[in-house]
Amino acid sequence: MFSDIYFRLLLEVIDENPTLKSLPKPPFSSEYQGPLGAVTYFGELIEFIYEHVPNSDIGMVFGAHMSPINTCEFSRLITTAATPKESLELLITHYHMLGLKPYPLVHRGNDTLSIALTFPYAEVASPLQSRFCSETFFSYCVNSVRQVIDPTLSPRQVYFSYDKPDYADEYIKRFRCPVEFNAPLTLIEFSDHFVDAPLPTATPALHEVYLKKARDSWHQLRRHQSTRYRATTHLMNSAPLGFSSQYLANVMNISTRGLQKRLNSEGTSFSQLTLLVRRELAKVCLIQRGLDMEETAHVLGFQTQSSFRKFFKSQFKDNPKKYLSEHFDLSYL
After folding, report:
1. Which one of 2, 55, 232, 314 has the largest count of C-beta atoms within 10 Å of its C-beta?
2. Is the model's pLDDT at 133 over the cut of 60?
3. What is the predicted pLDDT for the residue at 328?
4. Hey, which residues does 157 pair with through a beta bridge?
5. 270-291 pLDDT, tens per residue?
6. Which residues contact 307 (CB under 8 A, 6 or more apart)?
7. pLDDT, tens only, 235-258
8. 3-state secondary structure of 107
């Protein structure tokens, strides 16, 4: 379902940039074939660009092209839904079908709508890869809102979990709102006044067609995805139940021993995946959803607050309250 249109657009962006155009030819591997080939080649090209030009604004430039009009059938699926609320629900339930590494999470609270971008699929998410994903994904969100709903709409605030880049002024121009860097969670926040309104591009008949295509593509693609990827996805969307290896094995239709054996063959384990997912969800629960310590501990599958605090300190080198007060402006919660 990940269309090669993204790869073609990226090549066009590179061709229009003198600095990037002069780079040597990327050493792509000939091994990547099949349904996941486009995803792998795309990722390799991004890594290649940052290897040679670490301060490149490729994410912002590429993000300017990201809109429902010129992207894949996944965009058409979410823009033909009945309401923005339904579109966002589809974003969460179907985004992993693209085989991409960021995992978006949506939360609606008070009069706000926020989308957090998490990175649970690797032990160490490269700051440059995180930057590219954040720039393009949030650009897509803003472009979609402005093209489909209201050209005057802008986020209330955008937070990024990496250092302020040299071209930070482009963020202000793109998002037209306050932007904060070095935050513990990558997050974009809107007013929720438009969420329940009918979507101008809603087309029920076409929506059903794209929904069927998405499900058909998923059935073909998932057998090519790694056990690690599928297990992590289930852990992210089934907390706290997913933190039981028996539950996860049942959902994936394999035995617990078979699950662990497959994960071992991929260089990981159930406990390692659980650690990564809990780390991401801890930030989501406390920052995006505004849960208290007890609620967060429950969502993450901890029996007591003390065990959660111990986990949090081991991961973030501080207790939750102090960490949040020092790293994040929680006034909007």
Report:
1. 232
2. yes
3. 54
4. 189
5. 999 999 999 999 999 999 999 9
6. 297
7. 998 888 889 999 999 999 999 999
8. strand
Assess if residue 220 is contained within a domain.
Answer: no
Distance of CA 76 to the CA centre of its chain: 19
Residue 102, preceding bond cis, omega within 30 degrees? no
Say if 199 falls within a structural domain: no
Counting the structural domains of the chain, the total is 2
Instruction: State whether 29 and 161 are in the same domain.
Output: yes
Residue 258 contacts by C-beta under 8 Å, 6 or more apart in sequence?
A: 249
The structure tokens listed for 294 are 């007890």
Helix spans in the chain (H): 5-16, 18-21, 37-52, 58-63, 73-79, 84-94, 127-144, 169-175, 204-221, 227-237, 245-251, 256-265, 270-283, 293-299, 305-316, 320-327
Take residue 61 and report the two structure tokens written for it. 């430039």
Write out the residue range of the structural domain in which residue 235 sits.
226-327
